[in-house]
Amino acid sequence: MTAGENPFGDLLQDYIVECLPLAEQVGDAFVELERSWRSDEPGDDLLTTVKGRLHTIKGNSAMMGIAPARDVAHALEDACGFLGRAPDARTADAAALLVAGGGLLVELVGGASPELDPAPATAFVERVRVYLTAAPGAATTGSDRRQTERRGPRSDEGGAAGNTVRIDFRRLDAMLEVLGEGLIQHSSLVELYRRLLRKVGAGVELEELDQTVLSLQKTLTRLESTLMEARLLPVSTVLGRFPRLVRDVAHAEGKKVRLEVSGGETALDKAVLDRLGEPLLHLVSNAVAHGLEHPEERTRAGKPAEGHIRLRAASVSGRVTIRVSDDGRGLDVEAIRAKAESLGLDVRNADDAQLHHLVFVSGLSTAERVTTLSGRGLGLDVAANVIHALGGTIEVESRKGQGTAFTLSLPVTLAIVRSLIVEVDRERYAVPLSHVAETVRAEPEAIRQINNQGVTQWRGDLIHVADAGAVLGTPESSRGLRPFYVVMTAGAKRRGLLVDRLIGHQDIVVKGLDPALGRPTVVSGTTILGDGRVACILDVVRILDGAAHVN
Amino acid sequence: MSTDARAVAEPLLGFADSLPAAAAGTAAPAAMLHLLTFTLDREEFGIPVTQVREVIRVDGITRVPQVPAHVRGVTNLRGRILAVVEIRTRLGLTPAVVTPSSRIVVVELMGRALGLLVDRVSQVTKVPVDSVAPPPEEVVTAETDFLTGVARWNSRLIMLLDLDKVLLLNA
Q1: What pLDDT digit, counting tens, does each position of A280-313 carry?
Q2: For chain B, which residues lie within 8 Å of any Cβ of chain A, measuring from their own Cβ?
Q3: Which CATH architecture describes the domain A235-411?
Q4: pTM recorded for the entire structure
Q5: Element (H, E) at B132
Q6: Does domain B2-166 have CATH number 3.30.70.260?
Q7: B71 and A516: CB-CB below 8 Å?
Q8: Phi, psi of A55, rounded to the nearest 5 degrees
Q9: Are A463 and A494 in contact (CB under 8 A)?
């Protein structure tokens, strides 16, 4: 956990990227050895290369705590060592053992995670042990034959896993692309149907067309949910690594910590999970290093010496929330205030909640010390940025002496987002429905101008209403009030956005922004609409965050 | 991908290398540069065909808010999103007015596809490598920075664009 610039979520990925090719080379080399031995070539050099690679894999696996891969690499290393010294033992059965081990190693490294099932590795290590005990004394064909019989079907297959196939996630992405095209074609059909209806009026054929398009939509929706389900993984794949981390950080910091993880079964799109590790890791290590007090301090404050960190995931109305809470000292509002003032921010009238929120502002981390894990380059502002980039929100609550809680709210998937399509100065935009509270007809008398900002009453609150043309910088902005506004929400923030037309709801396939487009702050991605045109997806979180920058 | 980029740069490097040799009169079998040429205003520009993926008609370019200067927007290239560069303003000309003859030249740069909005695509032209000279010193405009050379061939003047430089938008 000490090597490398980035000790966070990408570590496991780095391990796989580094070791999988090695493991594959090892596997290939064993197949090659099997062939060589069959034609009575010794293959000594192959054995030597393989041993080096196995050693690397063993070391890296040990460092990452992937014990099954470490053990299999170790066992294979032993077997290769023995076979290097005993040319007579280079039989077909020995080769079969190596080939089986190589295959297993590829599987273990490729599927590396803290939850890796240790059973196949244990079984293989035992096989090697039995082989090595039997082989030196009687390296005869007889003993090898017994070995062959022992082999049988692979122990890691069958049973409940019988109906499972391993599939490259990129293939799921590819399927999603195809589905996306289907969805686009469906919207084209709907548009075409509407045009036909206007042109030729209602008729039996059109009604049938309408029905067919409707059932096509149902089919596509079913396909979509099946495909989305296939992309979901339990949050535990990320949360699972925290017990170890918390233990390590607690040890380094001289703290006593009890970690409670719940809701690990909550499902999230792998694409979201992959990017969630880093910010979560930061929040958790931060909680241990800075949130919790030292045991003596806790005892003095009348708290249990052992700190308590809770990591809770849950599904809440189509989103996933993850809460990281501690029962530590709470945020030091006075320190934040002082720091904010030193940075020239006006916080005279800020209340505690507003001051708490400042921990997400760059340069305002109040940590007194830089610790090995939590202080390395990644501030809370960076963690918050990652969450925002995922279309999520992050909020903090804290009470002095009682603890701090960070609550993340994330979309279940990034791939397909149900959105409201709106039109502004003849440009179309998609607003993710998860951020739309309501669409309202804008009555001129209901919107007042205060400090050059539109303000209206909405559900008993005063909210700002901004002109979408101004927010999006449309080249030919129409004058005057637009007829509708969309109430957008992100966490506790809300704001109205005035638009010209509400086009309708649509499942859109999210496409990224080309790097050539720089980093716009008001749009998070693009999508293709039914007419084949590209529309930008509004980045509601950042629009609401940057509300102050918009006049 | 980087090998692609190298393959793409090869013709240009090739002619750069060949310049002194041509001056010295080494009679190699006439090496030809294959160029896709297009016009911006009245001037003709060329890029190596090896760098061109395809040429498409302009069918709706969506403006994207807050993008760098010289990015016209994005368009739908068979279900993929293609960023379209306003190469005219990049070269110091007025923004393009899309007409029926406007085209998007899809080029590949560092393994990524990018679209160049041009007024009109002429054709694929072969010019001898030794017809290429460095950009003339006397024509000192901003655009000479973006040229690798100028080809004079059959009474045509084709300016060879340095795509790497032209499309380095964030610099």
Answers
A1: 988 898 888 888 999 999 999 999 999 999 999 9
A2: 59-60, 62-68, 71, 73-76, 79-83, 85, 112, 114, 167, 169-170
A3: 2-Layer Sandwich (3.30)
A4: 0.56
A5: strand B132-133
A6: no
A7: yes
A8: -65, -45
A9: yes
